[in-house]
Amino acid sequence: MPADLDRDKSVRDFAQRMGDNTLILGQQVSAWCGHAPVLEEDIALANVALDLIGQTRLWLGLAAELQGEGRSADDLAFLRDAREYKNCLLVEQPNGDFAHTLMRQYLFDAWHLPMLTALKSSSNSRIADIAEKSAKEATYHLERSENLVISLGDGNQESHDRMQAALETLWPFTGELTTSDALDEELAASGIAPDLGSIKTRYENHLSATLDAATLVAPEDVGMRKGGKSGLHSEGLGFILADMQWLQRAYPGATW
Amino acid sequence: MAAARLSRRDLVTVMTATEIRSAIRPDIKEVWRWLEDVPDPEIPVVSVVDLGIVRDVDWEAADLVVTVTPTYSGCPATAVISFDIEEALRRRGIEKIKIKSQLSPAWTTAWITEAAREKLKQYGIAPPLDGSTCAGALKAAGDVACPHCGSLDTEEVSRFGSTPCKASWRCKDCLEPFDYFKSF
């Protein structure tokens, strides 16, 4: 029995990490709605945000169910403080200009898709089901962000410089995605999640090919930042949560 | 012999209300026919059955269980679809309805019926080209025919469109913009 409970807790913590990633990125991307540089991009950003929030409902729904106590995905999204959030640092980096938003999206998508693809064969069927659904959406996300990174990186001087600046700012947050901690190792050992080492290879290959085509250069010898997965965040997350949660905090239990 | 003397009225009074309803519960095929009349809230020319959203209909004791699958995980129409299905069945006198959501196998546009593809085209939406889901598979832009003039000289404007399931396209012959129901 205790072994089952431990297993449930690991699955719950993992579902929460996945859901926190999609929630925070979805919340940030949705802020572009009505402000994107061209109409088509406005629609694309809103659609990507919608997919990410939809995936969040699945992941946090699973996490809430395993936690029991009658909690829901909404409770987890609206009633947790920053230290309880387990998203990676990359997704909480500010929107910045369109180049920063786009580069952040690409750096996430290029990790997200191989991760979800591997999770389709998770030993946990709930995780496998969510991954199967989400991977189809992430395929479209990556195709778009990759194409745009290439066309803007290899665009004019202005677009190239902005993409290069965004890459340099965001690069230190890419290491965390493929660095295992105790939970990752435990999940890999039980076949619930993939070994992050295998994801790392695929991630780095994708990045290297795309950045080459985009004429962008990844910085070398940069210290990689981490902490998000264990709840240690940059100050940005507090502002994101304040924006996202204020209504439920000010008017607890408010519904449409 | 004793049973034969019971009148029909006696028989009815010993049945509870639930028993009567389950005794006359409609055939599953009939229920499928009803669901074929439930339109998709975003694209009302096709039904939720046409789109492959309804995966299964079955009786579980006195409950009619309808299994549905979301098209896109964040599609706002999903909640409306469940509501519309419940309402349509209630109108037919079904009282105990359970809507079950199923994620796997994940919804695919390959499940959209031939008839529905024709209806989509008539409505101005280019139907999905099966097998072009994977990244890069839809690079050959000429494959998508303009639903207005039939020309194959079309181009993608954005991979995303007015709803999660569509992409924005334009015809270079008749110059009209149109929605393409993207392969998924």
Can you walk me through this structure?
By secondary structure, chain A is an all-alpha fold. Helices cover 66% and strands 0% of the residues of chain A. The longest helix of chain A has 29 residues, at 2-30. The mean pLDDT of chain A is 96. With 184 residues, chain B is α/β, with parallel strands linked by helices. Chain B has 2 domains: 8-101, GMP Synthetase, Chain A, domain 3 (2-Layer Sandwich), CATH 3.30.300; 111-181, no CATH class. Chain B has helices at residues 8-14, 17-23, 28-35, 77-91, 114-123, and strands at residues 54-60, 63-68, 97-101, 125-126, 154-158, 166-171, 177-181. In chain B, β1 and β2 form a beta hairpin. Chain A binds chain B through residues 40-41, 43-44, 46-48, 50-55, 57-58, 125, 128-130, 132-134, 136-137, 139-140, 142-144, 146, and chain B through 70, 72-76, 103-107, 133-136, 157-162, 164, 168, 182, 184.
